[in-house]
Write a structure and sequence with these properties.
mainly alpha; three-stranded antiparallel beta sheet; two-stranded antiparallel ribbon; 14 helices; 59% helix; 3% strand
Amino acid sequence: MPNKLVSAAARRISTYSKPSHWKIILRDRRGADSRPSNDHRHLHTAMEWLCRAQDVTGCGGVSAGYYFDRDWFGPYPETTGYIITTFLDYAKLTSDETYLERAVRMGDWEIDIQMDTGAVRGGVGVNDYPIVFNTGQVILGWSALYRRTKENRFLESAIKAADWLISIQDDDGKWSSHTYLGIPHAYHTRVAWPLLEMFALTDDDKYRIVAERNIDWALSNHVGNGWLMRMAFSDEETPLTHTIAYTLRGLLESSRHLGGEQKNRTLNLVTTAAENIMKRFELRKRNPYAMPEYLSARLNEKWKPDADYSCLTGNCQIAIIWLKLHRMTTDARFLNAALKILDQVKATQSLDSPNPGIRGGIAGSYPIWGGYVPYAYPNWPPKFFADAIMLQENIMQKLEAECE
């Protein structure tokens, strides 16, 4: 039998051979109807999963995740970069300095593998090619570490990375080289955001100018109704909620540093898009009193569903956007929708699996065989899940205090 067929057969056997895998598959065939536990337990178990994902690599970086057919993957530079901020927030929340120490190890690993140009490497592991998006995500981690520790090495690496991004930007503000599939993406607004963070840290106008140029380019893709073209991984596909949320979060966070008409246009677009996603989510009900069905993993330009599964990463990211808009506007609809969608994600999280790759993790898709990272527990869903739960708890505590 050819080696490729042997390898494919072995992976298929691995996918279905473990009882812990079957338990998740059978649960999702029935429907994830378990009642969520308390938020503290869900959050702590997710953070424990992320700690295990870091420990299995032995280098300080965080494993790309646990895959049914291949076990744990190697460290992932892109997501390790933005997981740093989650560990810093959790360290502050719990006053547990071990999470700060882990975040520092992540940041130091990113420095160790940073390319001579300043760029961050693409893909899982240590590869010899740079990627724009990954570079922006690691800047977020380094800049957060610098703010927390005041260690100059983190700022120096962030500056090198930001300068590389400036050097390869197109004249109209997009990035079209060293990008995924070699094309520009609207979700590079999540690269503009860390450049604006660099402007805030250094007061160097060049970072602001480049970031604002990218925001203008992204806004030029607006076709009405809060929709932006080029939010997907490729121009041929309907975007995932994951990349839609990347785009909107980049715009929302960037708006804090913008002014005038650009700020207004950015916030209006994010609000319109978030409202349309919220309406689409709330309409997925069997009756007016029921919990909405899971949000479709893909939405088209009319905000209509275009997939028969849900992207749990995107759900967590959208919850964060709704929560942040609630905090900005006090619009209770955003808070209500965020609480519902996070309860759905909690229902998919196994809190007691004997398999350490599953326990506390958040799958790529619901059901587990859905089209986005199927049969796997990547590291980025629990990162955004933890961020959303911490933000939700902060908002709820303030609301409760106001009611006393």
